[in-house]
Amino acid sequence: MSQASTPSVIATSASSRFVRACLRQPVDRTPVWFLRQAGRYMPEYMAVRRHHSLLDICRTPDIAAEVTITAAERLGVDAAIIFADLLLPLTPMGLDFDFVAGEGPVVNTPVRTLEQVQALRTDRAEDLTYVARAIEKVAAHFSAPRPPEGPLSDPTGDQLGIIGFCGAPFTLASYMIEGGSSRNYIHAKQMMYATDGAWQLLTEKLVTMLTAFAQQQVDAGADVIQVFDSWAGALSVDDYRQYCLAPTTELVRRIRAMGVPVIYFGVDTASLLPTFRETEADVIGLDWRIPLEEGWRAVGPGTGVQGNLDPITLFAPEDVLEARVKEILRQANNRPGHIFNLGHGIVPETPVQAVINVANWVKQHGTIYTTP
Ligand code: CP3
Description:
The chain has helices at residues 17-22, 43-49, 54-59, 61-75, 90-93, 114-119, 129-141, 169-178, 186-193, 198-220, 237-256, 273-276, 292-299, 318-332, 352-365, and strands at residues 79-81, 97-100, 104-107, 161-167, 224-229, 262-266, 283-285, 304-309, 338-342. It has 372 residues and is of the alpha/beta class. The site of coproporphyrinogen III has 22 residues, from strand 3.
């Protein structure tokens, strides 16, 4: 089985402990950030949200940048994920969607036939450049390195990492075909199993669009791209291998060729992890169901891992939560290539102070591998 290799161009922000960890290079301590770190649990986000819809925030670079920066600074994390949404590329492909309160995303006319797939466009990626404009603003804000934390830190300071992202072919296709969130993925799987080539054409078009979208984000200053395959856990290993591995691997290959590391994340993926490694992503995001040690064994020693605290432990008493943080660090066991994170996104109602505490505990207990 192949092992991840270093991207063809070495990432420029090697002074960032986050980027170094993605490349399995030595760091002064384990880097930390949180899935959905700028979300509804945060009063600063809700204050902005009162005046703007989710899509308005995504499509207004000043506001998207502000929300991104505020969350990263409030939490004291090592990376900022750009405020955007997985579904944004659907619009230039020709699909209208909206977020409906209490229901999540709704695609007005789901894609169910070969003719509908043939009608999807891949030539309007420039309609998404508002995300790149927001990344430029975030990159400008964080251009000055943060002071070294201790004698073992890089004396030139640490550059906060900037994460761009996109969906993986399966997870995005599932929204396009199902028309929203789904329990059983009946329509998506029906298209996969059909022999008319619709699934293959759809994933091909998605890879084309997502490559262009990722390139804009990298050009604008994203240090790393995270590919979200949030719902891949709905697939058997055989179906993942037969219908999703090739387009996902192609997307990862094209993004890595841009010179940035790729983090590939999904939920409920324990049985899929050995196959995820074959995408050659630099880092695999583990969900919270699998012990980190076991997850890392499954992806193999040549790949980094990100994760994997259960986001609901953020509601636990402080001593329980701190013990969980330490346990994850213990299981990571000084190996280069661990990025501390949750095993899925922060949920609304989460106490902000608990998230800040976790970041501080990782800084306190995060192991030093070697001096950089
Ligand atoms: O800090 C951050 O991570 C925020 C940036 C971000 C958002 N969406 C903003 C958002 C990111 C990284 C995403 C990715 C995303 N979007 C995923 C993959 C991540 C995952 O959780 O697995 C998915 C599946 C989506 C699609 C999506 N967007 C759904 C299913 C929903 C509804 C969720 C709900 O509970 O209602 C959204 C809405 C959304 N996107 C919110 C945020 C902060 C919350 C809704 C709001 O502010 O109105």
